[in-house]
Write a structure and sequence with these properties.
This is Short-chain dehydrogenase/reductase SDR. 25% of the residues lie in helices and 21% in strands. By secondary structure, the protein is of the alpha/beta class.
């Protein structure tokens, strides 16, 4: 199991997040799928950012 942070997705909810790099829902979905495709076979317990970098928690 792995969790993926999609980044700041352009929605009404993200309007207050001006100044952050925003992506469309379609771009976020593509990034998440690409990231999941590149992960090793057993990333269980990982939390990664949409670009594949590990997010420490």
């Amino acid at each position: 199991m792995v969790s993926v942070h999609p980044g700041t997705v352009r929605t009404k909810l993200s309007d207050p997040s001006q100044g952050h790099k925003m992506v469309s829902a379609e771009e976020a979905a593509i990034s998440i799928i690409d990231t999941l495709d590149r992960l090793p076979a057993d990333p269980s317990g990982s939390f990664v950012v949409y670009d594949g970098t590990e997010m420490l928690w």
